[in-house]
Specification:
The chain contains eight helices and eight strands.
């Protein structure tokens, strides 16, 4: 005999009553109550945030902080979901690898799935071995598949929901220290890479600067008082830095008279004539 007691179906056989099992929660947080889901997700996010930063499982890309695949799989383990690679396949046009990953609970329920590629046309992967591209395709698919059910937890933890492996990356650019010659010899060697015309123009503007600031000085530059030589050297250091930053020795056409004059006028604040006007 079957009857319903307070909304629960029971089977009555003699004096024995067997309660039917309630269905399990439909969320990963073991509750169907929205408020409880938020509370539990926030608690997990707080724990996750500290671990990811302490263990350096995030990377800064642009303005965002993105979680590496190890961080995503950690979060999956915390909630009892695991990525499984279904397949990988080689691509020929464009050349590379593609992978598909599904995310399942221990009970076998699928809660996420994604496909991802790693192509030789990407900056960092053009010369890499096949196995490396195949592995990266799996890695990207793993992060992407876990993002579907878990992305909001990562956001609650204070990180971007876009996995780090999905973000495009530019080749690392090494900072080049500002050019600063240590001697007159080094300065003239640097100017020599721009060609003889630039070197000769440099000498002209050195002489004009000296004449502008110290018209009374007529002796050889080697015989100048130390304070004058030091100031002239400071002008040359600043002017040569501007030259190197603004023009490449291999650039065509090379710096013109006007280019060199502009550099020297910015450095000295003086109106310098240059060789053309001086000749006239």
């Amino acid at each position: 005999m079957t009857e319903t007691i307070q909304g629960e179906v029971v089977e009555q056989v003699g004096q024995a009553l067997e309660l039917a099992e309630a269905p399990p929660p439909t969320t990963l947080f073991r509750t169907d109550d929205p408020a409880e889901v938020v509370i539990k997700a926030t608690a997990i996010a707080n724990v996750l945030s500290k671990v990811l930063r302490d263990k350096k499982l995030t990377v800064k890309i642009g303005k965002g902080e993105h979680v590496l695949v190890e961080g995503w799989t950690l979060l999956g383990t915390m909630l009892g979901v695991f990525p499984i690679c279904e397949w990988t396949r080689k691509l020929t046009n464009p050349e590379g690898w593609e992978a598909r990953v599904i995310v399942k609970t221990l009970s076998g329920a699928t809660v996420g799935a994604a496909e991802a590629e790693c192509l030789r046309s990407e900056n960092m992967w053009g010369q890499r071995d096949d196995y490396a591209l195949r592995s990266m395709a799996q890695t990207r698919a793993t992060s992407k598949a876990l993002r579907q059910p878990l992305g909001f937890v990562v956001t609650l933890a204070g990180f971007s929901a876009t996995p780090a492996e999905e973000m495009p990356r530019e080749p690392e650019r090494k900072e080049t220290p500002a050019y600063k010659p240590s001697s007159w010899k080094q300065l003239w060697e640097t100017l020599g890479t721009y060609g003889e015309p630039v070197t000769e123009l440099w000498k002209v503007f050195n002489a004009q600067t000296l004449k502008y600031e110290h018209p009374e000085v007529t002796e050889d530059m080697k015989q100048l008082p130390k304070e004058i030589k030091d100031k002239l050297w400071a002008y040359n250091v600043d002017a040569s830095r501007m030259l190197v930053e603004g023009f490449s020795p291999d650039e065509l056409p090379p710096p013109t008279v006007d280019d060199i004059r502009d550099i020297w006028q910015k450095v000295t604040g003086a109106e310098l004539a240059g060789p053309v006007e001086e000749a006239s």
